[in-house]
Amino acid sequence: MNKKGKRLREFEKNNRKFNVRTFDKRRPSRTEEEKPQEVKSSVKEQRKKKKRVVLNIKRLALSAMVVLFIVSVGVSGVKMIRLQSEYNDLVERKEKLERLKAELTAELEYVDSDEYIEQQARKSLRLVMDNEILFLLPDEDDTKKDEK
Q: 1, 77, 91, 144 — which has fewest CB within 10 A?
């Protein structure tokens, strides 16, 4: 800014014309010195009160968010524990089913073998091969029943 512009502004500031009536309305009366202080102190108190209210609202909102966060973490933790136990149960069940499958597969292979078919034909159907003689002996259970 140049010097001429500065001087012009200073001159305008210093030579302003004031309307006395409007000026009196704006400023408090000089005779009552206590009132402006009371007004100032009450304004300060109101500002402090507003600040406290805003601060309390912020604290309340922050507290609510913290509580909400803690509750959500707790609920998530409980769900995780429940899911982990369910997962462990399912793993155990899977292992049992795999063992059962292995047993049944082995039994199926045995049942499909010629040995098993021949054994069942001899035992259940009492079939014999060519040039064989069938001897029927009483079972041990039958002899025990007869003795009683």
A: 1
pTM comes to: 0.44
Asked if residue 129 lies in contact with residue 123, where contact means CB atoms within 8 angstroms, the answer is no
Q: Is 39 helix (H, G, I), strand (E, B) or coil?
A: helix
User: Sign of the C-alpha dihedral, residues 95, 101, 105, 107?
Assistant: positive
Dump pLDDT digits (tens) for 32-87. 555 555 566 787 888 889 999 999 999 999 999 999 999 999 999 999 999 999 99
The three-point CA angle 17-22-25 to 5° equals 140
Residue-wise pLDDT tens digits, 82-97? 999 999 999 999 999 9
CA distances from 43 to 50, 110, 121 (A): 10, 99, 111
Angle (deg, nearest 10), helices 114-123 and 34-112: 70
| Structural domain span for residue 98 | 3-112
User: Cα–Cα distance between 119 and 109 in angstroms, integer?
Assistant: 15
Into how many domains does the chain fold? 1
User: HSE of 139 in the Cβ direction (CA atoms, 13 Å)?
Assistant: 4
